[in-house]
Amino acid sequence: MNNMPRAFGEPLCSVVFRNKPEDFIVEEQLIFEPEGEGEHVYLQIKKRNTNTQWLAKQLAIFSGIKQRDVSYAGLKDRNAVTTQWFSLVLHPSKEPDWKKLDLEGIEILDVSRHRCKLRPGMVKINNFIITLRDADCSLKVLEDRIDLIRQHGTPNYFGEQRFGHGGENIEQAKKLFEGSLTVKDRKLKGIYLSAARSYLFNKVLQERVRQGNWNKAIDGDCMILNGSNSFFKTEKSDSVIDKRISEFDIHPSGPLWGKGESSVSLDARQLEDTVLAKETIIMKGLESVNMKSDRRALRMRASEIKSEFIENKTIQLRLMLSSGLYATTLLREAFFLSTVFK
Fold this sequence. Notes:
Helix content is 28%, strand content 29%. The protein is of the alpha+beta class. Strand 9 and strand 10 (231-233) form a beta hairpin.
């Protein structure tokens, strides 16, 4: 990911990122409050240095249900302190005593019920508190870069965690499409397919960053409404479109590849076709599993981002990101991230 072009030039300095789990704190907020009744138990869990999928498996074992009956709205980083919700299909008469759940690094904060299970897209906002160490830059330089990020947003790259260690998920996706790999686990297969789509999106976004139009309209673009999955086609850029982009009302978009006609035309279509010309294995593979073509904003915006030096060479950032956006993507626009997790 460090090889992908940045929007604002070279990073300010190197920083030590996630020296310990407490350096990366995330709390998710759902788009709704559990109603207090229904067939699904909702658990709000604070976890430290714990994988989301592993914890889902432990909850299933403890509850005596199948792992497929445990759901969550999104994966959270392992090397962090994260607070997220899980839902379990569980009859009230079979609900265990949650106080007896004894797992290292796990704390149940709330137990409730709701009428439907958690699904991807049900997270409204993720709140982050991020501590960066050994930062050799001045407060003034830091504030100037943060101001740029506030004013313009940042390229909305999928984070490297999407692709697995060393990009392994992409390689597995290619094997899946070529027929040399069979994956029976539905969730694991979904991870590979999502990584493949993300890889193609990032390639298009990289080229738009190189050309300097990742946050500007080009002829034939598709625009996504801010905070929505809805998009609309444009032919020629005009002052109205430019104004809406500058106000973060809409964003230029890139492809989430799948079955269906391309939504872009003219210059945008030519750019995407050129960038993806050598990725036919992945493109045809995604179409073969009937993934539906969609769009994703090329630009992301952090809400209420605040930065300060809390001690010598130690920066603390507080920010809010909508679901599906990556804090590491924002951080790389200001810093070289050196992960020294213990």
